[in-house]
Amino acid sequence: MSYKPESSSRFEDSTEVPGGGVDARLIARLVVGLAVVVLAVIFVVRNSERVELRFIFFDVTTRVWVGLVVALVLGALLGQGIEAVVRRRRRRRSARQ
C-alpha cells in the first residue's frame, strides 16, 4: 500500500476547476471586493468635513464619514437584535403548539 498524492482528492484546491483554470466566482468576489474598497476610500476622502452631530443625550464634532459608519453599525446591530427577538418569539410559539 503506497501513498499517491496525485490520486488523493482530500486536499483538493477549491479555487481550481476541472479544466485547470481558476474559479470564476473567486475572481468575481475579488473584483467586487476591490471595487468596494476603492469606493469606500473615495467616500472617506470626499466626506472628510467636520460636522456637529446631535444625538439624544450628547453632541459630538466628528467627520461626516465617521458619523455615517457609526450609524450603519448601530443600524445593523439593531436589525440583528430585532431579528433575534422575532426568531425567539416564533420558536416559543411553535413550541407551545
Would you kindly provide a written description of the structure presented here, covering whatever features stand out?
This protein is mostly helical and 97 residues long. The chain has one domain. Helix content is 58%, strand content 10%. It has two helices and two strands. The protein has helices at 24-46, 64-96, and strands at residues 50-54, 59-63. A two-stranded antiparallel ribbon has the order 1-2. The longest helix has 33 residues, at 64-96. The protein is flat, with a radius of gyration of 24 Å. The chain starts with 23 loop residues before the first helix and ends with a helix. The model has no long low-confidence stretch (mean pLDDT 81).
